[in-house]
UniProtKB/TrEMBL annotation:
<dbReference type="InterPro" id="IPR000998">
    <property type="entry name" value="MAM_dom"/>
</dbReference>
<feature type="domain" description="MAM">
    <location>
        <begin position="11"/>
        <end position="166"/>
    </location>
</feature>
<dbReference type="Pfam" id="PF00629">
    <property type="entry name" value="MAM"/>
</dbReference>
<dbReference type="GO" id="GO:0016020">
    <property type="term" value="C:membrane"/>
</dbReference>
<protein>
    <submittedName>
        <fullName>MALR1 protein</fullName>
    </submittedName>
</protein>
<dbReference type="InterPro" id="IPR013320">
    <property type="entry name" value="ConA-like_dom_sf"/>
</dbReference>
<dbReference type="InterPro" id="IPR051560">
    <property type="entry name" value="MAM_domain-containing"/>
</dbReference>
Amino acid sequence: SVFFNSASSWNNCDFETNLCKVFPEFNLQPSWIRRNGKSGLEPPYSDHNGNESAYFLSLSSEMQSSSAALRTNVFLPTDEEHLCQIRFHYWLSQMSGTFMVGFQKHSEDTVTNIWQVSGELRNQWNVNTITINSTEKYEVIFSGMVETQRQGETVAIDDITFSEGC
């Protein structure tokens, strides 16, 4: 199993501060809002640990655009001893949320979708781990989408942890 080092801000992004070094354009993403459970009239009302005052990212229901991407900085190629494992917590509203993780190799223009989930999961935090194996430099893209702008329709993400191989 891969050892997750949660002490380093390079390796862990819990959104408690704005300083997530792995996401260089973090503050330039108006479609994602950094909030906690107390701040909104819509779920989630806490982070994945049940803490109402801890922060996470969610899609802003005020935005006309209902999709948003969060792109990492460039990771070096993986090798057999150091695969890149990424663990993250995600929340989907029950009607129309979709959450995707993709990666883009440096030589390609397209994003390859490696994992996706849609809104059959009912308003709860879930956790997932993905493994990336790439022979060239790459970036990882987290994308959220809601099809409607109804109250309470959101996608959220929390505690993204990157293994040493990323």
